[in-house]
Specification:
alpha+beta
């Protein structure tokens, strides 16, 4: 299972990638997509939606089940990946290249609230 070191992670199996000017992109991890199975639907937060850390902000559904997307940190959605919405199977094929939404973080330093790749790998190894 992949766990790229250039990303940060949440215990809810989402990843976050730093862009610039406090902008981030987020998606679900390889572990999450593997558990879900074939993803058939993505309900992303809308542009302008306010995100609250730990609160549900969207949904990913597979042929097996559905899973809420939980905001990793407080922020505001700036962009939604229409390609992921229109072709959700891309998340299964390329979980770390297929972001679901981009957002501007309310705080400049959010790394302390998230897991490093090694910490996330330890978490999933313990499951």
């Amino acid at each position: 299972m992949q766990t790229p070191t250039n990303l940060l992670y949440s215990p809810q199996h989402l990843w976050m990638k730093a862009l610039e000017n406090n902008l981030w992109e987020a998606g679900i991890t390889d572990y999450a997509q593997d558990l879900l199975g074939d993803i058939v639907f993505v309900d992303a937060p809308v542009i302008g939606a306010v995100l609250y850390a730990g609160k549900a902000c969207g949904l990913v559904e597979s042929v097996k089940t559905g899973s809420d997307l939980h905001a990793l940190v407080d922020g505001v959605v700036t962009e939604v990946n229409q390609e992921a919405i229109n072709s959700p199977e891309l998340i299964n094929d390329k979980p770390y290249q297929t972001w679901i939404f981009r957002f501007k973080s309310a705080k400049p330093d959010v790394a302390e609230e998230l897991l490093s790749a090694s910490d996330y790998q330890g978490l999933i190894n313990a499951l």
